[in-house]
Structure prediction request, 238 residues.
Amino acid sequence: MADAYGVNGKQLTSQYKEFISAYRQWDQLGHASEYVLFKQNIGPGLCIDETSLSCGELYTVVTNRAGRGGRGTLVAMIRGTKSEDVIKVLEMIHLSKRKTVKEVTLDFSPTMMRIVRTAFPNATMTNGRFHVQKLFYEAIDELRITYLRMARDLEDDEIQRCREQNIAYVPFRYTNGDTRKQLLARAKHVLVKHFSKWTDFQRIRAEIIFEHYPELKSVYDLAIELTNIYNRHNDKDV
Prediction:
């Protein structure tokens, strides 16, 4: 805006903050560093999660799903993730309004579950799709790392045997040129993506991985089946 109107950018920012925006007259200015609360934005469907805004500081954020990220979405933002602190702020909303909340989407955190049970007593807790799938892909990655460690141990043994026999070590390579360690290290980017989004090189790597590590194929297929269930059914009651 400053460039468009030919004015000094820093001065425009200062003018907007101090005068145009009425920031200094904001009724939540006194406690904004600890929390902000917009009681009017509460609705029957909420989401609660933690986020890091800057310098590693964690904040608990409660949003109204009906707002879809626009005006009226933010219900509360509280510094920290301690359940006692978050509940204290949310209880500033009258109990009658909090009882109108029917569903809250959250992760698997016991802290978040405690907050929801206390602050929104009538709400059903729903684990978000992102968190469910993340848990699944983390399990797949743990299996990949187990195979990677086994490949490193095997390579160490082969190197040791070559030293004992006084011959040059030539690592085993697959048809795409990857060694065992390279294949499993680079598999991370393959196993966390839907097969429809693979590049040609990733598709070739996946074929090799699944041929030599069938257990990875089995768990990957289960992850894709879960993804397809989410993609087919948008109704939470299905």
User: Anything to note?
Assistant: The beta strands are 35-37, 45-52, 58-64, 74-79, 103-106, 124-127. The chain is about 50% helix and 15% strand. The radius of gyration is 26 Å. Residues 129-164 form the longest helix (36 residues).
